[in-house]
């Protein structure tokens, strides 16, 4: 399988964008069910917890963060296996991804802090951490059982391409957020909360496609790994 016909890895921006769309077409429905299965129960529990002052707010934040890490880990797994022709059930992806959740949660929490600090003391460092986190960290943790240093190494090999893809993703997310914000502002409470929650789901699906396709391209550049190789790494002998 060459770089031009690999279902995930792409050498240029056009191929990258096409593969994002293909991931959503191929796995979007299953990813939607998976994301909802993680985030809806967590949200139902977190909302009343958040009303209990700081202890409750902290517990709610940890709960939602853990649920998001589980959803992200399982989504990466499902999308890679689907792309490799190994269609997997949502329940199986959730079960098989559970061992990666603590690691992904920990690294994600650290990168969130680093991003905020980087943005506060210099915009570029914060953007760099955010780019590495979105482009390579989920794949590095779930597929390779690695962490932030390895993810940064992958991104640094193609820093220009990674930055360009991150810029496109950031612009699209900002535009979508502005549209959603306008709609939410026009909807009365408490319907606005429901609209805001539902509007987050398409963004998380697009985020998964971004994670998987960008990571696959970085791996292809770094060591020649194909989608089938990434799928095999998910379940080593």
> What is the overall silhouette?
globular
β-strand number:
0
What's the alpha carbon Rg, rounded to whole Å?
Answer: 18 Å
Helix percentage range: over 70%
Oligomeric description of these chains: single chain
Describe this structure in words.
It contains ten helices and no strands. It has helices at 13-49, 53-83, 90-96, 101-121, 123-135, 137-144, 148-157, 159-185, 191-223, 227-234. The chain has one domain. The chain has 237 residues and is mostly helical. It is globular and about 50 Å long. It is 82% helix and 0% strand. It starts with 12 loop residues before the first helix and ends with a helix.
Task: Record the SSE blueprint.
Blueprint (H helix, E strand, L loop, with lengths): L12 H37 L3 H31 L6 H7 L4 H21 L1 H13 L1 H8 L3 H10 L1 H27 L5 H33 L3 H8 L3
List keywords for this structure.
237 residues, mainly alpha, globular
At a glance:
By secondary structure, this protein is mostly helical. It is built from 10 helices and no strands. The protein has one domain.
């Amino acid at each position: 399988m060459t770089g031009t016909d690999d279902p995930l890895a792409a050498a240029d921006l056009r191929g990258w964008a096409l593969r994002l769309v293909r991931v959503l077409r191929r796995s979007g429905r299953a990813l939607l069910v998976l994301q909802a299965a993680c985030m809806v129960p967590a949200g139902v529990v977190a909302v009343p917890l958040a009303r209990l002052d700081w202890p409750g707010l902290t517990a709610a934040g940890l709960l939602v963060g853990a649920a998001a890490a589980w959803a992200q880990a399982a989504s990466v797994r499902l999308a890679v296996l689907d792309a490799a022709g190994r269609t997997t059930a949502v329940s199986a992806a959730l079960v098989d991804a559970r061992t990666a959740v603590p690691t992904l949660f920990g690294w994600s929490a650290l990168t969130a802090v680093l991003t905020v600090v980087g943005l506060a003391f210099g915009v570029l460092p914060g953007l760099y951490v955010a780019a590495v986190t979105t482009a390579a960290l989920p794949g590095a943790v779930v597929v390779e059982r690695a962490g932030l240093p390895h993810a940064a190494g992958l991104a640094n090999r193609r820093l220009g391409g990674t930055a360009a893809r991150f810029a496109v993703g950031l612009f699209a997310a900002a535009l979508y957020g502005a549209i959603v914000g306008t709609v939410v502002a026009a909807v009365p409470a408490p319907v606005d909360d429901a609209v805001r929650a539902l509007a987050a789901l398409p963004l998380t699906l697009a985020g998964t496609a971004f994670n998987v396709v960008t990571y696959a391209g970085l791996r292809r550049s770094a060591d020649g790994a194909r989608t089938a190789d990434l799928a095999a790494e998910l379940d080593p002998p």
